[in-house]
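Quick note —
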Amino acid sequence: MSENSDGGDDRWLIVRGRRWRRTDPALAPRVVEELKSRLGAARNAVKQAKKRGDENDLAEARRKVNIAKHGLGERGEYWWEMAVEDRERRAEESLRELR
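Predicted structure written out below.
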């Protein structure tokens, strides 16, 4: 297996020996696109809050990262153990919270 691989499993991605959960493949592309956009903005907010040393903003930015990652199925309950309807509902609820 190479350093960066999927290990033959569509649920996990291996990067430099570390296993990362993949985004839920059942989610609509528009939902994934918006969640990833919001995730990127939240990650940028984490970086900026760290630069400023603002602990309140840092906590809020990290909370938003967590919401987006849950919505994408990359955190929380494993998406492959959930009904598709529940997975879609989780993603839409995450989007509503991030908007």
